[in-house]
TrEMBL record:
Coiled coil: none
Molecular-function GO term, any one: L-galactose dehydrogenase activity
Start and end residues of each NADP-dependent oxidoreductase domain: 42-321
InterPro entries: AKR, LGALDH-like, NAD(P)_OxRdtase_dom_sf, NADP_OxRdtase_dom
Gene Ontology CC terms, in alphabetical order: cytosol
SUPFAM superfamilies attached to this UniProt entry: NAD(P)-linked oxidoreductase
The protein, known as: L-galactose dehydrogenase-like
Length: 358
């Protein structure tokens, strides 16, 4: 029978006796997330896969994934209203039932919502206030640890984020519904500009599809974020499935060249019976940019196991050999291959057409 003991300061604040696997927690690396006071696991759990974004998902499997991830020491979970248009938060809320609230930190987002182009983004104060209440209801929680302004590059102007959205998020934090202010986005230059100009102290950034096998642009910005005591969450190091054996979904904004070379790497891995996603995670762990690597699971238990296996044990001899070959294949691409501005320009073009036709 488990006995409650006095807190061991060698364990993270999120450790809960009688719930956690203490041996697994002691193996986990925990890093300070900027000056938030949160010490987060080296791997964190992304839940965009708890929706239809990457195909079908199984709610019971999602429950097992969340329980096992937290029990084994992963203590940061990320979601958003945008993922499945509320489905991710709703499913995550169900998954968290029975897990002690102390055992995890939770981040969600505001400002990106619906598939309908006219309703996709709303950076207004009114919608942001409504958004946190909706999120808390879906999550069945009284507060989140981090509330992030989602994809700030899509705002009508950065001034709106600076003068309306961020002050509202700060207001929400003062109310106790959230604890820390964050921003997310793809263009790192926009994240940097926002931090430089903001009168609200931005405590975290979530950058995605950077510091990965095909794009190391984050290297150019990490010192700036550190100088501002901003915690860095490094998300989507698989390039939104680009660097997996499954491959990129049809909606992926990458160029045909980038998709083709990644597909070649994927096919090589399949031939060798090695998961490209495992190699991609290993690369990002070795590269080391960011305080935590946010890894999605597409609600599969085996992914949690191999993510933790990479963290604790690295690659096998065969995987290391395949890894070296994959790096050679990816060298066919120009350095820092990405899709900077593609999605924003596509969105603005469609938005103009939508309003012109009204």
């Amino acid at each position: 029978m488990c006995e409650q003991k006095a807190r061991d300061k060698t364990l993270p604040e999120t450790f809960v006796p009688c719930f956690h696997d203490e041996k697994e927690v002691r193996k986990m690396t925990y890093n300070p997330l900027g000056n938030t006071g949160l010490k987060v696991s080296k791997i964190s759990l992304g839940t965009s896969g708890f929706s239809n974004f990457y195909g079908e998902h199984d709610v019971e499997e999602c429950k097992k994934v969340v329980y096992e991830a937290v029990r084994r020491g992963i203590n940061l979970i990320d979601t958003a209203p945008w993922y499945g248009h509320g489905d991710s938060e709703k499913i995550l809320g169900t998954c968290l039932e029975g897990i002690p609230r102390k055992a995890y930190y939770l981040s969600t987002k505001c400002c990106r919502y619906e598939k309908d182009l006219a309703l996709m983004f709303d950076f207004s104060a009114e919608r942001t206030r409504k958004s946190i209440d909706e999120s808390l209801t879906r999550l069945k929680l009284s507060y989140v640890d981090i509330l992030q302004v989602h994809d700030i590059e899509f705002a009508p102007t950065l001034d709106m984020v600076l003068k309306e959205t961020l002050p509202t998020v700060a207001e929400i934090c003062k109310s106790g519904k959230a604890r820390h202010v964050g921003i997310t986005g793809y263009p790192l230059s926009t994240l940097k500009e926002c931090i430089e100009k903001s009168t609200v102290h931005i405590e975290t950034v979530l950058t995605y599809c950077r510091s990965m096998m095909t794009d190391n642009t984050l290297d150019e910005y990490i010192d700036f974020f550190r100088s501002k005591n901003v915690g860095v969450v490094n998300g989507a190091i698989h390039g939104m499935a680009l660097l997996t054996n499954v491959g990129a979904p049809s909606w992926h904004p990458a160029s045909d060249e980038l998709k083709a070379v990644c597909r070649e790497a994927s096919e090589f891995c399949q031939k060798e019976n090695v998961e490209l996603g495992k190699l991609a995670l290993y690369y990002s762990m070795q590269h080391g940019a960011g305080d935590t690597i946010l890894v999605g699971t597409k609600s599969k238990m085996k992914l949690i196991s191999y993510n933790l296996d990479v963290l604790h044990n690295g690659l096998s001899t065969k995987e290391q050999e395949v890894y070296e070959q994959v790096l050679k294949i990816l060298k066919k691409l120009p350095p820092n291959s990405n899709w900077e501005d593609v999605e924003v320009e596509r969105y603005r073009s469609k938005s103009l057409n939508l309003f012109d036709n009204q």
